[in-house]
Write a structure and sequence with these properties.
Number of strands: 10
Bound molecules: adenosine-5'-diphosphate, magnesium ion
Distance between the termini: 53 Å
Number of helices: 17
Helix content: 55-70%
CATH class of the largest domain: Mainly Alpha
Largest sheet: 6 strands, mixed
Number of domains: 2
CATH topology of the largest domain: ABC transporter transmembrane region fold
Length: 482
């Protein structure tokens, strides 16, 4: 049921507004958890009410109540046994629902990563496991309750029958006043309610399951991009990329034209750079290449092939991204790197970690590569996360590499070293760099200067210094800073 979510288009998901979406998920999953605990509380609340009403009955007529009391040990024994068993299955279900919750958030955050490293199938199988685990626990809870229902009902039935029969006898022999009898009967009827609800708490489980089902509409989106398996294979030759007449806007904000009339040629096996202020559309432009988004109009071609006409799997196989916003899975460091290439040998993973200078900080951790990174990598610094993301690119070692401010969170010493490694990685590969530091792109084959969604100018560094005022200012500012 989660598979459609994994395949769902990034834009749809990002448009759902990360925070709101995650809190929705949290809400729904939490509701399941809460429902489970309230059901459990109700179990005791109803039990107490029942005891109170039995007291009233006792006050009205001790003889009748005595008979009822005789029933109590039997009832409480049953209730206790059921309660114990219930608390066990409820705890288990809460654990599973917590696991699912964490996983859903992970899935959501790592959406781009799943796509770029083509792990949809893997996540599909993984999600099935998480959902099934919770489902099985819920079924178990339901079973416990369903078993409880007939037992409780039988118990009340027997009680009522015996009491009415005995009351009749007492009234006949004038041992019981008719008023007292009705008060007693009222209390007994009231007592029926808690007894009854003790046995129908399973309705609550149904509500919890429907909360789980509410996740479905969010998740149930047809995916356009993965449905093109029958298209022809993409064949990478020289790795020339061409973006022609590109316009783009996010469907969540149609007024804002993020990219306008973009025409760019990226030479294969060379490095091309994009510079421009933040918000000028650089990251968006980059995400058109692996078809994280499709342009609103215009075409993207790689080696003459319109990327919309080729099998997406074969396209993404050739591309790596080091994204501006690094996302990680709540898993070990080792698995987070290996995510980029599941069939990689362990030595390759270590090698990639070394090249990206991850091994430096990994070796200092207590559990080394087996350290859990914690939710969203909270245990790592921004620079460390960025290095993990670079390690993935080293491991995948694709022919097209997209670097979106890949070294922005690093201190200058580490950056310098990584830059050397990146130079090696990107040698003879089609590389598009968004650099936050101009020094890293001075040798680019071509630099495009972007502003407010447009390409304002292009050329190599020397050319741009003379013909682009924006570029010159930009460059001078950085020189003065350092
Ligand atoms: N997922 C999104 N949904 C809607 N608008 C977006 C999204 N991502 C970026 N934008 C908008 O698109 C514009 C360009 O953003 P971006 O490509 O990230 O620029 P840059 O990378 O140059 O800083 C900005 O105005 C930004 O607010
Ligand atoms: Mg950006």
């Amino acid at each position: 049921m989660l598979s459609s979510f994994i395949k769902a288009d990034t834009e749809y998901i990002e448009n759902k507004h990360t925070g709101k979406y995650i809190s929705n998920l949290n809400f729904d999953v939490n509701q399941i958890t809460m429902m489970l605990s309230t059901s459990f509380l109700n179990f005791f609340k109803d039990g107490l009410t029942l005891i109170g009403l039995l007291c009233v009955m006792f006050f009205q007529n001790w003889r009748l109540s005595l008979i009822a009391i005789i029933m109590i040990p039997l009832a409480s024994f049953t209730a206790k046994k059921l309660g114990k068993r219930m608390s066990k299955v409820v705890t288990e279900a809460q654990e599973k629902s917590g696991d699912l919750n964490k996983y859903l958030i992970d899935l959501f955050k790592n959406h781009k990563i799943i796509k770029i490293f083509q792990r949809e199938k893997f996540e599909e199988e993984r999600s099935e496991k998480f959902v099934n685990d919770l489902k099985n626990k819920s079924i178990k809870i339901a079973t416990v309750f369903i078993r409880a229902t007939p037992i409780m009902e039988l118990l009340t039935g027997i009680m009522i029958a015996i009491l009415i029969f005995y009351s009749g006898k007492l009234i006949m022999s004038n041992q019981l006043n008719i008023n007292n009898f009705f008060s007693f009967l009222a209390a007994m009827m009231l007592a029926y309610q808690p007894v009854k609800s003790l046995s129908i708490i399973n309705v609550g489980v149904g509500q919890g399951l429907s909360a789980a089902k509410r996740i479905l509409p969010i998740v149930d989106i047809k995916n356009l991009v993965l449905e093109n398996n029958d298209k022809k294979e993409f064949s990478l030759l020289h790795g020339d990329i061409e973006l022609a007449n590109i316009n783009f806007n996010y469907s969540s904000n149609l007024e804002n034209n993020v990219l306008k009339d973009i025409n760019i040629k990226i030479n294969g096996k060379k490095m091309t750079a994009l510079v421009g202020q933040s918000g000028s559309g650089k990251s968006t432009l980059l995400s058109l290449v692996p078809r994280i988004y499709d342009p609103s109009s215009g075409v993207v071609k790689i080696d003459g092939q319109n990327i919309r006409d080729v099998n997406l799997f074969s396209l993404r196989k050739e591309i790596s991204i080091v994204d501006q916003n690094v996302t990680l899975f709540d898993d070990t460091i080792f698995n987070n790197i290996k995510y980029a290439k599941p069939d990689a040998d362990d030595v390759d993973v270590y090698e990639a970690a070394k090249l990206s200078m991850c091994s430096e900080f990994i070796e200092k951790l207590e559990n080394k590569y087996q350290t859990m990174i914690g939710e969203n990598g909270t245990r790592l610094s921004g620079g460390e996360k960025q290095r993990l993301s670079i390690a993935r690119a080293f491991l995948k070692d694709s022919k097209i590499i997209l670097l979106d401010e890949a070294t922005s969170s690093l201190d200058s010493e580490t950056e310098e070293k990584i830059q050397k490694a990146l130079d090696k990685l990107t040698l003879n590969k089609t590389t598009v760099v968004i650099a936050h530091r101009l020094s890293t792109i001075l040798n680019s084959d071509k630099i495009y200067v972007m502003d407010k969604g447009r390409v304002m100018n292009s050329g190599n560094h020397e050319e741009l210094l003379t013909k682009s005022e924006t570029y010159k200012n930009y460059y001078n500012k950085q020189i003065n800073k350092s």
